[in-house]
C-alpha cells in the first residue's frame, strides 16, 4: 500500500520545507566526514507504523547510511524498545531526525488509536474505517497507518467512489434524483453511497436503490431501526461523534461500517525519540 514514488516526493518536499538553505547549525558544527550511530527508541507503548518511511528519509539524505530495522510495521511495541539502529554521516542523521520522527510518530499514533477502536468492536460484524479528514498531502501515509492498526480504508479521494452528501442533495433537489443520476452514469464497478440525517431520508435512500447508506449523527435507537428496515439489502455505515467510549454500543446495533474522523484529524502522536549512542 505504500507507493514510494509518491512517498519520496513527500519526503523531498518536506526536507526542502525544513531546510530550504541547508541546516545552518549542523553545517557550522559538524565536519562533513563525521559519522555517528543512533537508535530510534519507543517512549510509550503502541503499534509501530512508518518504520520504512523513516528509513527512506535517511536514505534520501545519505545513500550510504545503514538503517537496521529491529521492529516492523504492525508490531506491538513497548516503552524502551529499540526500533532501529542507524549508522552513517552525522549531518544526514541530524538533518533527517525531525522529519523521520514527525512521520513515524504520526503514523504510529494513528495505527495505535485505530487498533484501540478495532479491539473494542472485535466480535461484532462492524469494521472501523477512516475518512478523508487527513492532513493534506499525507493521505497515503494516514490511510496506510489505519490499515496497519487493524482498520479499513474508506475512499481515498473524490475520484474513486460516489458518496452523495447533504450539499449534493440540496444542489440536485432530492436523494431520489441524486441516486438516479449517479446510477445512470457510474462505472459498473463502483457503488453509490448516500449520507442521510434522519429516518425519512434513510427510507428515501433505501427506496432509491443506494448501495450503502451513511447514518450521520443518528442515535443508537435510530441506528437499530435503520438496520432492521434495511434487512441486509444495503450496507449501513454509522458516522458522527464516534469515539472510544461509544463505539462498542454503536457496533451492537448491527451496522456494517463505523467511520471515525478523529482517527486521522485528531491523532495523538506516539512518543518516539532518536538518540545518539556511543
TrEMBL record:
<dbReference type="GO" id="GO:0034213">
    <property type="term" value="P:quinolinate catabolic process"/>
</dbReference>
<keyword id="KW-0662">Pyridine nucleotide biosynthesis</keyword>
<dbReference type="InterPro" id="IPR037128">
    <property type="entry name" value="Quinolinate_PRibosylTase_N_sf"/>
</dbReference>
<dbReference type="Pfam" id="PF02749">
    <property type="entry name" value="QRPTase_N"/>
</dbReference>
<feature type="domain" description="Quinolinate phosphoribosyl transferase N-terminal">
    <location>
        <begin position="23"/>
        <end position="108"/>
    </location>
</feature>
<dbReference type="InterPro" id="IPR022412">
    <property type="entry name" value="Quinolinate_PRibosylTrfase_N"/>
</dbReference>
<dbReference type="GO" id="GO:0009435">
    <property type="term" value="P:NAD+ biosynthetic process"/>
</dbReference>
<dbReference type="InterPro" id="IPR013785">
    <property type="entry name" value="Aldolase_TIM"/>
</dbReference>
<comment type="function">
    <text>Involved in the catabolism of quinolinic acid (QA).</text>
</comment>
<dbReference type="Pfam" id="PF01729">
    <property type="entry name" value="QRPTase_C"/>
</dbReference>
<comment type="subunit">
    <text>Hexamer formed by 3 homodimers.</text>
</comment>
<comment type="similarity">
    <text>Belongs to the NadC/ModD family.</text>
</comment>
<keyword id="KW-0808">Transferase</keyword>
<dbReference type="InterPro" id="IPR036068">
    <property type="entry name" value="Nicotinate_pribotase-like_C"/>
</dbReference>
<dbReference type="InterPro" id="IPR002638">
    <property type="entry name" value="Quinolinate_PRibosylTrfase_C"/>
</dbReference>
<dbReference type="InterPro" id="IPR027277">
    <property type="entry name" value="NadC/ModD"/>
</dbReference>
<dbReference type="GO" id="GO:0005737">
    <property type="term" value="C:cytoplasm"/>
</dbReference>
<feature type="domain" description="Quinolinate phosphoribosyl transferase C-terminal">
    <location>
        <begin position="110"/>
        <end position="275"/>
    </location>
</feature>
<dbReference type="GO" id="GO:0004514">
    <property type="term" value="F:nicotinate-nucleotide diphosphorylase (carboxylating) activity"/>
</dbReference>
<keyword id="KW-0328">Glycosyltransferase</keyword>
<comment type="pathway">
    <text>Cofactor biosynthesis; NAD(+) biosynthesis; nicotinate D-ribonucleotide from quinolinate: step 1/1.</text>
</comment>
<protein>
    <recommendedName>
        <fullName>Probable nicotinate-nucleotide pyrophosphorylase [carboxylating]</fullName>
        <ecNumber>2.4.2.19</ecNumber>
    </recommendedName>
</protein>
<dbReference type="InterPro" id="IPR004393">
    <property type="entry name" value="NadC"/>
</dbReference>
Amino acid at each position: 500500500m505504500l507507493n514510494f514514488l509518491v512517498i519520496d516526493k513527500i519526503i523531498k518536499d518536506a526536507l526542502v520545507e525544513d531546510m530550504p538553505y541547508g541546516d545552518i547549525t549542523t553545517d557550522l558544527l559538524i565536519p562533513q566526514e563525521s559519522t555517528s550511530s543512533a537508535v530510534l527508541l519507543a517512549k510509550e507503548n503502541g503499534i509501530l507504523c512508518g518504520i520504512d518511511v523513516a528509513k527512506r528519509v535517511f536514505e534520501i539524505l545519505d545513500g550510504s547510511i545503514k538503517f537496521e530495522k529491529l521492529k516492523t510495521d504492525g508490531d506491538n511495541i513497548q516503552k524502551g524498545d529499540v526500533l532501529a539502529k542507524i549508522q552513517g554521516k552525522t549531518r544526514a542523521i541530524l538533518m533527517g531526525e525531525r522529519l523521520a520522527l514527525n512521520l513515524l510518530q504520526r503514523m504510529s499514533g494513528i495505527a495505535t488509536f485505530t487498533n484501540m477502536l478495532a479491539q473494542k468492536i472485535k466480535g461484532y460484524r462492524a469494521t472501523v474505517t477512516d475518512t478523508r479528514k487527513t492532513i493534506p498531502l499525507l493521505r497515503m501515509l494516514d490511510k496506510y497507518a489505519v490499515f496497519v492498526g487493524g482498520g479499513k480504508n474508506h475512499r481515498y479521494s473524490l475520484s474513486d467512489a460516489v458518496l452523495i452528501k447533504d450539499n449534493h442533495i440540496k444542489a440536485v433537489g432530492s436523494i431520489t434524483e441524486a441516486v438516479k443520476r449517479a446510477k445512470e452514469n457510474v462505472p459498473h464497478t463502483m457503488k453509490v453511497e448516500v449520507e442521510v440525517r434522519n429516518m425519512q431520508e434513510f427510507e428515501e435512500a433505501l427506496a432509491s436503490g443506494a448501495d450503502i447508506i451513511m447514518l450521520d449523527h443518528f442515535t443508537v435507537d435510530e441506528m437499530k431501526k435503520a438496520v432492521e428496515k434495511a434487512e441486509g439489502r444495503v450496507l449501513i455505515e454509522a458516522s458522527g461523534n464516534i469515539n472510544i467510549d461509544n463505539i462498542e454500543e454503536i457496533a451492537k446495533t448491527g451496522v456494517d461500517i463505523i467511520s471515525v474522523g478523529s482517527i486521522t484529524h485528531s491523532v495523538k502522536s506516539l512518543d518516539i525519540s532518536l538518540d545518539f549512542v556511543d
